[in-house]
Amino acid sequence: MNRSILNKCVLFEGLSEGSLEYALDFFNAQEKQYKKGWQLHHEGDVMRNFGLVLSGQIQVFMDDFDGNRMIMANVTPGTTFAESLCYLKRISPVNIEAVLDSTVLVMNTDRLNSPSASPSQMDLQLAGRFTAMLAGRALSMNDRIQILSKQSIREKVITLLSQHSSRESKGLVRLPFSREAMARYLGVNQSALSRELSNMAKDGIIEFKGSSFHIL
Amino acid sequence: MNRSILNKCVLFEGLSEGSLEYALDFFNAQEKQYKKGWQLHHEGDVMRNFGLVLSGQIQVFMDDFDGNRMIMANVTPGTTFAESLCYLKRISPVNIEAVLDSTVLVMNTDRLNSPSASPSQMDLQLAGRFTAMLAGRALSMNDRIQILSKQSIREKVITLLSQHSSRESKGLVRLPFSREAMARYLGVNQSALSRELSNMAKDGIIEFKGSSFHIL
DNA sequence: GGTTTTTCGTTGCATTTGCAATGTATAATC
DNA sequence: GATTATACATTGCAAATGCAACGAAAAACC
């Protein structure tokens, strides 16, 4: 199993070999393979597991009455899905499917939901890590909501860039998005995004090349 | 202190008198008063506390460079704010202010972040409740993102209504929003929302009166 | 190195939505 | 009951954006 992928996830980041083994057991981790197109979970079923993508790509989506697929998340290696629904043992409103041949670490929260009477230090630490994962997710969802709430593409772009610009790298931002993915994240049309980026450059607000942006 | 308000929050819901006392101590709860306009927290400071609004109204917001106030949340009695930032001990990007004279239960997560070596059953239960609160928040943020991602007002309205329509009350939805609040939640202009609601009624998709909707 | 595929930018056009001004109904206050 | 305030609806107009078709550049493949 790929250690460098596991290290990207708060649940397992920086654990020693022995602790990692313990952690995997704690979450009942099982490595599973899914062929492209296979469905991991169906809407209406209780969400009993959550997952960490090791390779490939997993899609969380809903089909509304018109048959339009609404993509909730495209999950790539190193990131997790369905933790909240799993922890709350909710009936799931979403479907989950492999969009590429994928390997997934399938886990559950049984030992969090029914903790042992006297949990070990490690158990407590893992519970804390799970909570931290949820908290971190809430923050990133907040960032997204902030962007989606802006009315103009220009405002969305500026907000996105300022979210990704650190104190050090003054005004220099490299986004982890293709243009298409960036447009989807902002909730706008790809052509319209390209147009607006050009306009912003023309107006002297930004410079950019590919996914590297410079705020002026 | 108002029990019925506390009961609205997962942290304290359904606790016996003694357990409640314990829970309040566990989170270091302190009841504080804030006059309208007072600022509870400033951007850039570490978020050391989270809060439960007992009365009044609290606003979480950011001021972007142009001086526009971007409202992240309007927090009303029975609901909490800043839990994620507090748990992760992050430097806060947001300001928090009382928009009305308010009473707030100010708490912290110290005993979650550094759990005792052998926590009691109650400690474990409270930690679980905190996690459940974060998970629940993630789900509701997900609902919001789903709505904000739709391009048209009509789609947003339909999505909102279907999120609030239960299996029983076939097509009948009473929203907990004024029209103005509904528009803000959908991220659209209030007039445009009214226009589109009228159009949808004209097209025979819905009927409505005030905040009561009937999906046809 | 050439071909194919993918990604991104450009542009014309139709539509939607924001905006602002104003109208109307309902509730609150005196 | 009259007055004021608040919430919601209506509408004309301008601007922004979605959409679609196409072109160019870059990347991937053989």
What would the average pLDDT of chain A be, to the nearest integer? Answer: 90
SSE pattern of chain A, N- to C-terminal: HHEEEEEEHEEHHHEHHEE
CATH class label of the largest domain in chain A: Mainly Beta
Q: How would you write the strand order of the largest sheet of chain A?
A: 1-8-3-6
Number of helix segments of chain A?
Answer: 8
Strand content of chain A: 15-25%
Description:
- The structure is a homodimer of 216-residue chains.
- By secondary structure, chain A is of the alpha+beta class.
- The first copy, chain A, folds into 2 domains: 3-142, Sandwich (Jelly Rolls), CATH 2.60.120; 150-215, Orthogonal Bundle (Arc Repressor Mutant, subunit A).
- Chain A contains 8 helices and 11 strands.
- A 4-stranded antiparallel sheet of chain A has the order 1-8-3-6. In chain A, strands 2-7-4-5 form a 4-stranded antiparallel sheet, with no helix packed on it. A 3-stranded antiparallel sheet of chain A has the order 9-11-10.
- In chain A, strand 4 (58-63) and strand 5 (69-75) form a beta hairpin.
- Chain A starts with a helix and ends with a strand.
- The mean pLDDT of chain A is 90.
- The A-B interface holds A 62, 64, 70, 72, 83-85, 87-88, 90, 112-113, 115, 117-119, 121, 124, 127-128, 130-132, 134-139, 141-142, 144-146, 148-149, 151, 159, 162, 187 and B 62, 64, 70, 72, 83-85, 87-88, 90, 112-113, 115, 117-119, 121, 124, 127-128, 130-132, 134-139, 141-142, 144-146, 148-149, 151, 159, 162, 187.
- Chain A binds a DNA duplex (30 and 30 nucleotides) through residues 151-153, 178-180, 188-192, 194-198, 210.
